[in-house]
From TrEMBL:
Keywords in alphabetical order: Cytoplasm, Cytoskeleton
Compartments in which it is found: Cytoplasm, Cytoskeleton, Microtubule organizing center, Centrosome; Cytoplasm, Cytoskeleton, Spindle pole
Name the record gives this protein: TBCC domain-containing protein 1
Sequence ranges assigned to domain C-CAP/cofactor C-like in this UniProt record: 327-470
Keyword Cytoplasm among UniProt keywords: yes
Protein family (similarity comment): Belongs to the TBCC family.
Biased composition (Basic and acidic residues): 292-302
Length: 612
């Protein structure tokens, strides 16, 4: 954070905070999207895009807003064909840009763009607003916060304690080879400070892209209209002390309470810039952090390009504090290192345990599962964004995710999710059971990834899928889109030639090894009467090869069961056979670690809060 940054403690509300979603889910590892020629290059690109606008963009009536919000369909909209022609992209990559924009647009009340609420299958007919697209492309120059250097050798193995066959095989610049851990990864406050530094530095250029000439044609006197100002909701959100978040346009003194029939007058660019810089601050500076719980299982808070110097954007010192430790930024303001973003539910640092979170446990539909090892995590309910980071030897079962899922730096993890879209980055030896409307995106340095069709269900799944707008008739689980090994947004340097290396994608999980995953029905009156999973009970249709393999497995199991029941044995021999089966099953439970899950489920039946 730069020295001239004004802390939230010294500002009067409303405050302007940077939205994390565009930086977490909106950065694409496509070098062709990075434009470094300045504002003029983006203006030229805007002119090209306007040559390919949709003649009659349409917004499906099924997406009509039901919260009283006003939805405006701008005429200057482009589909993926126009994006491909303007940027020289392949059609799949252009569609990825359009889909990514749809996933990160703000949809929180006020005047939102219709693409934010459009179902995945309809985004081509709606198209992207050209100005929103320009802002998404602008932030592609952002580079993530670099990892901290190691402090001790023990930090190398605290996330992946088990050796892997790939140790010593990965490239030196691979994040997995570097074994990035909580000690080396930047804290959330550092990431927010870095994003804020990027936006503050580039805000004059961003506003210049949205500015228009005055009515008298004076090219020097630029103004910002209400319609153009609203596009900044892609990057910023407004908050005050009483109501929390509020529409961005209603936070300003010059656009608030404007009559839709009599739009507010355009405002000089310099006036808008001065007001925004005087209200732009970090949310972590004004939001009191919640002290970490002893078991470190669950945390919840209510409440840029390389041209941004790290000395200005990151923590420069640490003050020891009995309350948990404060980080000191360069302007002297102190924030807690364990600060949590508002509206995000954290499941952090679970070790050898099971965790259950339902809709009542998370707010605003955003969840982050981080640094869990040898555990089973259930997050069941309608969600918007999910991030799974730095986990190993675990199973993560997610509900219906309407916006985006990102899985990063995980090893030997099984992820089961029904989502509109998913991005997998720098993982190895993982299996993904997917019900997805868009092609799974795989980026970075990955090894031994497998994808499989969705394999589970729970009582409210179909209702959750309908609520977040996922179409169960479309599942592109096996149509993987693989991009390059090197992510241009990473701050680490790469060896010569690495950028040209072919990225490793994912193979299809063998049908003969495919199994249904049974989610316990904890709230049922008689959970022991749980219905058997079949292909018909899963909302996404199962491919023929997998359904046939399941039928064969079920038939073989039933045949063995009947054989054991009908075998002619003396009573003492039957007891020996039963004891042998029980012993082998017990050995399997202990060898696989599933015995712990049984104990966890028994505890949950006795106390519903036992897994919190």
């Amino acid at each position: 954070m730069s020295a001239e940054t004004i802390s939230a403690a010294s500002l009067e509300p409303p405050w302007l905070h940077v939205r994390r979603e565009p930086f977490e889910h909106g950065l694409l590892p496509l070098p062709s999207l990075i434009i470094n020629e300045g504002v003029s290059a983006f203006k030229n690109l805007r002119t090209k895009l306007l040559e390919h606008v949709l003649s009659s963009p349409s917004w499906p009536t099924s997406n009509a807003a039901n919260d009283g919000s006003q939805v405006k369909l701008c005429k200057n909209r482009v589909a993926s064909s126009g994006i491909a022609a303007s940027l020289g992209l392949q059609e799949p990559h252009a569609h990825l840009v359009l889909d990514t924009l749809a996933s990160v647009l703000s949809d929180e009340g006020g005047d939102f763009d219709p693409l934010a609420h459009t179902r995945v299958l309809d985004i081509e007919s709606v198209g992207a607003d050209v100005d929103d697209l320009i802002l998404l492309l602008y932030i592609q120059t952002y580079k993530r916060v670099p990892p901290r250097p190691y402090k001790d050798a023990a930090a190398v193995a605290d996330v992946w304690p088990t050796p892997s066959v790939f140790d010593g095989y990965l490239t030196p610049t691979s994040p997995l080879q570097n074994r990035s851990t909580r000690r080396t990864m930047p804290c959330l406050a550092e990431e927010e400070a870095h994003q804020l530094a990027f936006v503050r530095k580039h805000l004059p250029s961003i506003l210049a892209l949205l500015a228009e000439s005055t009515e008298d044609g004076d090219q020097e006197a630029k103004v910002i209209t209400l319609e153009k100002f609203q596009h900044l909701s892609l990057l910023l959100r407004a908050a005050d002390a009483s109501t929390g978040c509020l529409p961005l346009s209603q936070a300003t003194p010059f656009f608030a309470n404007s009559d839709p029939d009599m739009p507010a007058a355009p405002v000089p660019l310099s006036q808008v810039l001065d007001w925004m810089l005087s209200h732009l601050c970090a949310a972590s500076e004004r939001t009191p952090a919640k002290a970490p719980t002893k078991d470190n299982v669950f945390h919840e808070s209510d409440g840029s390009g390389s041209d941004v110097p790290m000395a200005d954007a990151c923590v420069t010192g640490t003050t020891n504090s009995p309350s948990g430790g404060l980080t000191t930024v360069s302007n002297g303001f102190q924030i807690r290192k364990d600060w949590r973003p508002e509206g995000v539910t954290f499941i952090d640092g679970v070790m050898k345990a099971s965790v259950l979170k339902t809709e009542a446990d998370f707010k605003n539909g955003s969840v982050k599962v981080a640094h869990c090892h040898d555990s089973v995590v259930y997050v069941l309910g309608p969600l918007k964004y999910v991030s799974v980071f730095g986990c190993s030897d675990s199973i993560v079962v997610l509900g219906a995710v309407g916006k985006a899922v990102r899985v990063e730096l995980c090893e030997r993890v099984q992820v089961i999710v029904a989502s509109a879209r998913i991005c997998i980055s720098n993982c190895r030896e993982c299996v993904f059971y997917l019900g997805v409307n868009q092609r799974p995106l795989i980026t970075g340095d990955n090894h031994n990834l497998q994808v499989a069709p969705y394999n589970t269900t729970y009582s409210n799944l179909e209702a959750d899928l309908a609520q977040v707008g996922i179409d169960t008739t479309v599942n592109k689980w096996d149509r993987v889109l693989t991009l390059g090994v090197v992510d241009p947004h990473d701050s680490v340097s790469h060896s010569a030639g690495v950028a040209d290396a072919q990225a490793e994608g994912a193979s299809l999980f063998p049908a003969e090894r495919f199994l249904y995953f049974v989610i316990p029905r904890w709230n049922e009156v008689e959970p022991q009467q749980q219905q058997q999973l079949t292909a018909e009970s899963i909302p996404f249709s199962l491919p023929k090869a997998y359904s046939q393999a399941q039928q064969h497995r079920s038939t073989a199991a039933e045949s063995l069961k009947q054989t054991l029941k009908n075998v002619a044995l003396e009573d003492n021999r039957k007891r020996d056979l039963t004891n042998a089966i029980h012993a082998y099953f017990k050995d399997w439970l202990y060898s696989t670690g599933n015995i712990r899950q049984i104990y966890d489920l028994q505890s949950l039946e006795r106390d519903p809060k036992a897994m919190d």
